[in-house]
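Q: What changes when phosphoric acid mono(formamide)ester is included in the input?
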Amino acid sequence: MNKDLLRMDNLSKEEILDILNLADQLKYERKHGIDHPLLKGKSLGMIFEKASTRTRVSFEVGMYQLGGHPLFLSSKDLQIGRGEPIQDTARVLSRYLDGIMIRTFSQKGIETLAECSSIPIINGLTDEEHPCQVLADLMTIREKKLILEGLKVAYIGDGNNMCNSLIGMHLSIANPIGYKPPQYYTDKGLELAKENNVSFIMTENPEDAVVDADVIITDVWASMGQEDEAKKRQIAFKGYQVNSDLMKLAKADAIVLHCLPAHREEEITEDVLEANSDVIFEEAENRLHAQKAVLVKLLS
Ligand code: CP
Ligand code: NVA
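A: The predicted holo structure follows.
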């Protein structure tokens, strides 16, 4: 296993399955009142440069449940907010903490943090990647569909952090022109599709992407940090909505995932979200279990 979880492709297929199996076990233990203080005496720093509900609470509670100590570190209060180099912050925090989870803008920034730290760094979302969310999504898909292999996943919307982190699966993505994933990810998608004998289809047409899909995933049109583009994006993404008409093209038992927060009547309609609310809120819960598994694998 790599020291860090910075991007989804830091994990091999076997490592992903190991994490999911441990996550299932931790979920079972939690539901049956079995304590699992696997990280007793360990401390996790949680640096946030962007807002969060799920990531913040699930990492904090997860660390407590594992017997460890989470520290919420707002970048506004840290000296990095006043210009202290990330390299120095990394070297200092490595002497106090056993791991860092960070939510920030730049992927390059967290790669520098990881290079300069002797402790594991976990990506809690960057502009490019959201691996913790995708692990929770995979856990949820397996829970609901009982398998992962062979399922067709369709992603509709922005070629953003969520879309990028899904790449490597049996996947069809539909993004408007100008909002496709960066070339690194599309090249990677084609390369992994060959390697894993799955298909990776890129289209501009949501209808084409969802045909026979088992799982449909969408995300907001304007991510954190893109608030100024929201109006322009509402025009560009018109037609990229997961609604009941689109759902008719997928398999009859298809499920819909959304990492949340959702913008109803933009990327997803209220009725589709509510029809899939048991899946979507299980997905939110699974952030807790999947991340606990990541913490155990990286920090113990
Ligand atoms: N899905 C997700 O990462 O949610 P938060 O932004 O609330 O952490
Ligand atoms: N793509 C969204 C995901 C939020 C969890 C964002 O980056 O804001």
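Observations recorded in class: Residues 277-299 form the longest helix (23 residues).
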